[in-house]
Design brief:
It is built from 11 helices and 2 strands, in the order αββαααααααααα. By secondary structure, the protein is mainly alpha-helical. The chain has a two-stranded antiparallel ribbon. It is elongated. 27% of the residues are buried.
């Protein structure tokens, strides 16, 4: 490779690096654990990458940790152009794929072709990566006493719909989240139990207690 070609390659790489700094300016609807402010996309990606390194042992099947971490670090870069689409914003989700695809092509196109194209392909997430993407905001909502759920009047049916494939990445982690996070926040009123899942469970327990007390 000629020296001028190396310079052009380096400039493209640095252009991409400078561009993705904008990810720090994209704020999500999920609050930090201390509820002091909402987290940004870069923080979200960092948190999920660490989670994957620590929790990969609970994946339903063995995963390539390094590849999955790479997926998580790049998957929200498209929101620099497309913006953050809130998980329960049905109108926003209708145009989300189109907006993000266009953004991916532009942003990854800043890189040399042999680097940009693999990253564009990696942008398609794996099962465990999706599990981390769904569980991480749930953990922060739990830590901030359901603040974002309360602000948006989130229903249990919405959460279950969003997480219908979460267990495909890790049944262990989904079971924990369902029984130790969602149940608690439905009972406290932070999540609206429109499905009646926990209400029915509580009713059954109450009837059992009555029978045992007789």
């Amino acid at each position: 490779m000629q020296e001028n070609e190396k310079d052009k390659r380096l400039e493209k790489q640095l252009d991409f690096i400078r561009e993705i700094d904008k990810e720090k300016e994209i704020f999500r609807q999920t609050y930090l654990a201390d509820a002091s402010r909402k987290e940004n996309d870069a923080e979200h990606a960092w948190h999920m990458a660490i989670m994957t390194m620590l929790l990969s042992e609970y994946a339903n099947e063995k995963i390539d940790v390094l590849k999955t971490v790479g997926m998580l670090l790049i998957h929200d870069i498209v929101e620099i152009d497309a913006g953050d689409t809130y998980a329960y914003d049905e109108a926003g989700k209708a145009t989300q794929h189109e907006r993000e695809q266009k953004a991916a092509e532009r942003i990854y196109g800043l890189l040399p072709k042999e680097q940009g194209e693999p990253l564009l392909e990696l942008w398609e997430e794996a099962r465990f990566a999706r599990t981390m993407d769904n569980i991480q905001p749930m953990l922060l909502n739990d830590a901030s006493d359901g603040l974002s759920w309360r602000e948006h009047s989130v229903k249990l049916s919405q959460i279950l719909g969003r997480n219908k494939r979460t267990a495909l990445g890790s049944e262990k982690i989904w079971d924990y989240a369902f029984n130790n996070i969602l149940k608690k926040h439905v009972e406290s009123g932070n999540i609206i139990d429109d499905e009646g899942v926990f209400s029915a469970e509580a009713g059954a327990c109450a009837k059992a207690s009555e029978r045992n007390g007789r």
